[in-house]
Amino acid sequence: MNHCYYKCFDCKAEFTIEEIEPNFHYLCPKCGKVEPNQPLMGVLLIEYDYSSLKKQFNKQHFMNQPAGQFWLYPQLLPLKYRKQDDKFRFEKIAPIQLDRLRLLDHPFLEYKFEGRNICFFDDTRNPTLSYKDRASSLVALKALQMGISDVSAASTGNAASSLAGICARLGLNAHIFVPASIPEAKLIQIQSFGASVYIVDGNYDQAFDLSVEISNAKNWYNRNTAFNPLTIEGKKSAAYDLFISTKGDLPEYIFVSVGDGVIISGIYKGFWELQQLGWIEKLPRLIAVQAEGSDALVRYLKTGHFEYKTPATIADSISAGAPRNLYIAAYAVKQSRGEALVVSDQEILDAQRILSKKMGLLIEPAAAASFAGYLKFKERIRDDNKVLIMATGNGLKDVSSLKRWNPKPVARTLGEWREIFLNSKIQMTNFK
């Protein structure tokens, strides 16, 4: 008997695993649509028997589990499992394979900045250095259980490098569709993991549509954000890890960078499930942060209508003219009593510089957008409110952005350096 089922976000129709997975339905069979430059319709969510899970789970035991090992609670994941020797184990997946996917056991970092205590959720040290490993791992494990060897995805970079790296760790073949604007550091990361890369002379939205078309024709299992329901399920694990890391003392505000909208949707679902289990009373307020040049969610929340605009921002990982998970992302913001705001590219670069120089956190522009949003919003937060910033991608994934605010050092001869250091008339501050 299956422990979970699929439910359409739009028409609310429910489906069994047997109706969805063997037939490679990614969206709702009744109302699902993939249209060019449009958010997805009929996104499927995965739900569980929470009343039964209340009886199976103990809150204190759950909080005492280490973070970063999602396989310790298979009852809350859409993978087949069995009980063996008083332990739950995924079917067709060896423990050694899971060990290769292990995340940080303490992603929660605390700092004092401008007199306020703020915290960061650090996913920059995951296997491929981004939050996307949470989704890629679950998708890849599902492929193993289904006996599929080829997995595909469209991405601006992080989801692609994540899938490529996770597939390499599990012995699967990755097929990656990326826009021509992909940062060089991310492209070489994808290639180095051995994935097949197909560069699309167009933007992310076009790469997304092409990947769906080709994957259907080639029978590849598609990981595309929101399109594959397991991407939301994988990303919800951050809510569990935060719950574990804080021993249930969750922040009032969580700032999340938003592109396609799956990270914020996944985080919301994780907290919503903790609420269904009776472990938390209210949800943290989710503050969605978008770049000015890619602000579809902000505009949708203001007007109630979606209008496609070609995205333009240095924050490539949140550059999406047609956020595929727009409607669930908007729902997550509303249900959590959150808000959505925009930040400029310059504000993103300034935030990136502050995090690097003041806190030693080297994160990419898309991840720095969340901190830029906090800097813009902070006057509206009470001093006694706990704040969390999501750090979703490592700064080395986009070195070009770092070059924008780091001048190139000048090479000098030994004699020149001796003169600089030993001549007291020269101010060393000029060389910092």
What does this structure look like?
It is a single chain. This protein has 17 helices and 15 strands. It has 432 residues and is α/β, with parallel strands linked by helices. The mean pLDDT is 95. Helix 9 crosses helix 11 (262-276), helix 11 crosses helix 13 and helix 14 (345-359) crosses helix 15. The protein is 38% helix and 17% strand. It has two domains: 4-100 and 130-230, Rossmann fold (3-Layer(aba) Sandwich), CATH 3.40.50.1100; 108-128 and 235-403, Rossmann fold (3-Layer(aba) Sandwich). The strands form four sheets. Strands 6-7-15-12-13-14 form a six-stranded mixed beta sheet. A four-stranded parallel beta sheet has the order 10-9-8-11, sandwiched between helices. Strand 9 (173-179), helix 7 and strand 10 form a beta-alpha-beta unit.
